[in-house]
Design a protein that fits this description.
alpha/beta; Rossmann fold; 2 domains; 10 helices; 5 strands; globular
Length: 215
């Protein structure tokens, strides 16, 4: 996909860019869509990946996680001991809510700091699989949902992550129903392998530029 000249023409923008959130269920193709937006010159913040980084490198977060799960929450090399944490969360389900209470606010704060550092672009994108689930929709000017039928999402996730059908379905069960997301999202892009995602991303990009006078 070619870089859009309209994006380049606004390099002198002084105001903060708009905030656009992208979400969708496991296997929907959120990352694929985000990569297409990046090709158009739009910065993307990947919340899940950033959360993993912060959980290891943010001293304040590390301290809170150790208080919650013990020093064993981290391996000798400083990486997260996911097996230990998963075991405790399985035994004590309230710990997951407490962990989320540590991670999600930190990621939102970090994402806002990142957003304010972006200059000369009409909007930024923040990818979050659980955007609606954590109630963060109020942070965005527009929200885009990437949709794919459940059977396709299952196949993609099983192939990508090497998981069983049951494991993927268990993850799906923890996410908000797609039909509910469709009602809340401002835009829905269909990634079913039939309707071209690239064309939809380009059309939405043009629409966002037009809506806010960046033509």
């Amino acid at each position: 996909m070619k870089n859009m000249s309209k994006t380049n023409q606004i390099s002198s923008l002084e105001n903060l860019p708009l905030r656009v959130g992208i979400t969708g269920g496991i296997g929907s193709g959120k990352t694929t869509a985000c990569k297409l937006f990046e090709q158009l010159g739009i910065p993307v913040y990947y919340a899940d990946e950033r959360a993993k980084t912060l959980m290891v490198n943010d001293k304040g977060m590390v301290k809170k996680i150790k208080l919650l799960f013990g020093d064993e929450a981290y391996l000798p090399d400083g990486n997260l001991n996911r097996k230990h944490i998963a075991g405790l969360v399985f035994q004590h389900t309230d710990l997951l809510e407490k962990l989320n209470g540590i991670v999600h606010p930190a990621v939102l704060k970090d994402g806002e700091k990142w957003h304010r550092q972006q200059k000369g672009v009409p909007y930024t994108i923040k990818e979050s699989a659980i955007l609606f689930e954590i109630g963060s929709q109020g942070f965005y000017d527009k929200i885009v949902m990437i949709y794919a039928p459940k059977v396709i999402r299952l196949e993609r996730a099983m192939l990508r992550d090497g998981l069983s059908k049951e494991a993927v379905e268990a993850r799906m069960a923890k996410q908000m129903d797609d039909e509910k997301k469709k009602l809340i999202a401002d835009f829905v892009l269909v990634n079913d392998g039939k309707k071209g995602l690239e064309q939809q991303v380009l059309a939405l990009h043009e629409q966002l530029l037009g809506m806010y006078g960046f033509e």
